[in-house]
Write a structure and sequence with these properties.
Elements (H helix, E strand, L loop, with lengths): L2 H25 L1 H10 L2 H6 L7 H16 L3 H9 L3 H11 L5 H15 L3 H11 L3
Helix pairs in contact: 1-2, 1-4, 4-7, 6-7
Length: 132
């Protein structure tokens, strides 16, 4: 069947698109920030967080990691406002019992949030994932 090949081409395209976004975040901060926020790109990307394709999932996590490492207050506020991290946790919980790149990427994102002391996101995680 050719549908497997089409799916592979689709995932490859998505991964390349994500890599292009990562490049833009690193090299064109202000312009890409406006694009990401006004087109709600991060929300759209993380709607696909249930995709069972490792390469796409890793690219998705790299976008989030790159956005956090950019130290862009507007992107961080956007991540907070739209609860983007809420889409990260199901990925982490799905992979947490494994030792793999997806699990490591999630842990690295949590580490960046702590190391860079991104208070808005730390508070959000505590509110969402601690019992009363």
């Amino acid at each position: 069947s050719n549908s497997g090949g089409n799916e592979e081409v689709f995932y490859s395209f998505i991964q390349q698109y994500f890599e292009l976004l990562i490049f833009c975040i690193k090299n064109h901060g202000f312009k890409i920030r406006h694009y990401l926020i006004s087109h709600k790109v991060l929300q759209q990307i993380f709607k696909g967080s249930g995709i069972q394709n490792k390469s796409v999932t890793l690219a998705m996590l790299r976008i989030l990691k790159t956005a956090l490492k950019s130290h862009d207050e507007f992107l961080i506020k956007h991540i907070h406002t739209y609860n983007i991290l809420d889409k990260l946790f199901p990925i982490y919980f799905r992979e947490s019992h494994k030792t793999n790149m997806i699990n490591s990427a999630c842990l690295e994102i949590f580490s960046i949030i702590l190391k860079d002391d991104i208070k808005k996101l730390i508070q959000q995680i505590c509110l969402l994932y601690t019992s009363p």
